[in-house]
Each structure stands twice: as C-alpha cells, then as structure tokens.
Amino acid sequence: MKTFKQFLYEASITPWSIKELDTAKTALEGEYSNFFQSLKNGSLLFRGFRQIEGNGVREIDTTDSRRTSRDTHNIYQMMMDASASLSKFPSRSNSIICTTSPATAESYTYDPATKTSGSLLVVVPPNNTKIAQMETSDLLFTRFKYGFDFDDLDTWVFNYFSLFNLAPDIKGDRRDSWTDVARADKLLAEDEAEEVFYKLCAFFNHNILIRGTDLLYDDIQYEAKKFTELSDEHREALKTKGSNTEFGNQILDALRSTKTKRFQAISSVIMTPENLNLHLKTAGDSLPSSCECWFSGKALVLPIDVFKQIIDDVINNGGDVNRVYSKMMKAGE
To answer: Contact at 8 Å (CB) between 264 and 84?
Structure first.
C-alpha cells in the first residue's frame, strides 16, 4: 500500500509538498471558506487516487512541483506552458488536476494490477484561487476548431521533432522528458520561417495548414524518414502568397514574428482559451457538473468520511448542501 507521499513522488518529476492536519475545521473557517459556497452550488472538485494509505486531512502545495503527462508525450503540456495566450491561467505543469464529477474521479481509484479501489478525495482550493475549467470531462477529449485533436497534435509534433532529431529535452524522447521549451525554441531557430513551415506541412494534415495546388504543395511527403527539401518555387510562393488557410497563415505569421522563440510563438497560436474552450474561474464560482479543472498552489484534501461528517454538520445547522452531494453521501452509507 502506497502512502500519500509516495504517490506524490511517483506522479511527478518534482512532487507536491504535504502537511498532515489534525482537523479541517480551522482551515474551512479560514482561507478555504469558499468550500461552503461550492457545497451549495455543486462546484466542488474531486480527485481519485489508487491505493493510498491513511485517511487524514492533508494540505498540499503544488507551487514548486513539476508534473508531466502520464498518457501521452508531454508535448501538449509543454506547448500550454509556452503559450502567451494562456499566461493568465494556472500552469498545468504545476497544478493538481481535478474533476467536478465524483463518478469520474471514482473511476480513477481502481487499480487493475491489484483489482482494488483506492480513495476518492475532495480537493478544496484556497479563497480567490484561479481555476482553469474545461468544457469536457478530460482535456484530451478537446477538439480544436481547425479539425484536429490532442492525439493528432501530439503525434504530429513528436514525429516532426523525431525526424529532424529535434527532441526538445536533453534527456531523450521519453514521454515525461519533453519539458525544455528553451531548447525547442533554439532548434526551431536554425531555419528560415518558410523552411520550418514547409516541414510542419509534412506532418500536420495538409488541409489544415495549406490547400490546393496553386501553392505547389501537392508533392509534400513524409516517407521512410526522407523529406523533400523546399524548392525555390515553393519558397517564393510562400513568401508572396502565404498560406491559403486561416490556421496556416497564423502559424506562418508566428514563425516570421520571431527567430529565437518560435516554439513559443507557435504554441501561442495553437494553445488559446478559444481553441481549448478553456475558462478562467475563481474558487467558489459555479462550474459545470462534469468537467476537468486544475489549479496551482495550496489545496485542502478531504477524505470522504470527513467530507460526510462536514455535510452532516452543515445540514444539522440549517446550512445549504447541493442535492448531488447529499444524495452521494446517502448512497455511500
């Protein structure tokens, strides 16, 4: 059985800090008092953990932590960190990822290796904490308006970097090692903007970045790690006509806007709140009933038995509890 601290070290490059608390009462009456507003409006955050030992109240702090993606290459998260368009949002790389759905969080408690279930926990951000809120139950389910999803993006960028030996982290191409934005910027600075764009066209769906034969792009191909070099004719077409898709011109303009920070420039075009359907909320705000959220900094972590006792106390004192949570507690009796 893992301790809570062992789990934190396993899940992160640099783990969260953790402090055991004797009770949740003082914290909830102080800097975590938004809990009661969320309890009323049905906007509490939950997270499921596998095989966690202990059943106490804890306060964690993700401020100095560093997490990577467990299910894909870390490229998409690296792009989110690099995007100037997301500068007002908490960094996903040092946040705790939660859901507003207890059922979704519960699904993450099951460990197929041991065929046992761990713990469903309530995660409470401090008052005034900024929260990133998706419209989907999982970030990776998001589909960009230009017709691709996170799996497409992850594959395209990974193949692009791999073919040209541009793994953006010196540790290699392991999934959790794709974190070095500065090195990616440096590697993309070696070619002219049109050259970089042309190479990207070989990996992104052609119809997303460029369409038609008027720009002579029908012969772009990626095959057996051989790449057709940009011809003078192609280069001139790009310089004089640009792309003929909205997304293509945005990428091309971003590449031309800087020589030294091109990965950041591309990321700022792709990773925007509009493309991600991402919203910035504050602790205590109303949230959809089944969406992924994340926030950075301190958090109060409540086991379900403690959460149930709090609900009983609130109800007994005439307070408001959203029916979803009162029903959830009754079902667990």
So the answer is: yes
* Stated pTM of the model: 0.85
| CA of residue 12 relative to chain centroid, distance | 14
Cα–Cα distances in angstroms (integers) from residue 139 to residues 8, 71, 108, 292, in the given order:
21, 12, 15, 7
d(CA 45, CA 38): 9
Residue with tokens 């970045």: 209
CB 266 within 8 A of CB 254: yes
Q: Which residues of 120-155 are buried (b: 16+ CB within 10 A; e: fewer)?
A: bbbbbbbeebebbbbeebebbebebebebebebbbe
Distant-in-sequence, close-in-space partners of 309: CB < 8 Å, separation ≥ 6: none
What is the tens place of the pLDDT at every residue in 68-90?
777 667 788 889 999 999 999 99
Candidates 163, 187, 157; CA nearest to 175 is: 157
How does pLDDT run across 117-176, given as a tens digit for each residue? 888 999 999 999 999 999 999 988 888 888 788 888 877 777 777 666 655 554 444 554
Confidence band (pLDDT; 50, 70, 90) for 3?
very low
> What does the radius of gyration of the chain's CA atoms come to, in whole angstroms?
23
Q: What is the 3-state secondary structure (H, E, C) of 278-311?
A: CEEEECCCCCCCCCEEEEECEEEEEEHHHHHHHH
How far apart, in Å, are the Cα atoms of 290 and each of 8, 105, 254, 271, 281? 25, 10, 35, 22, 15
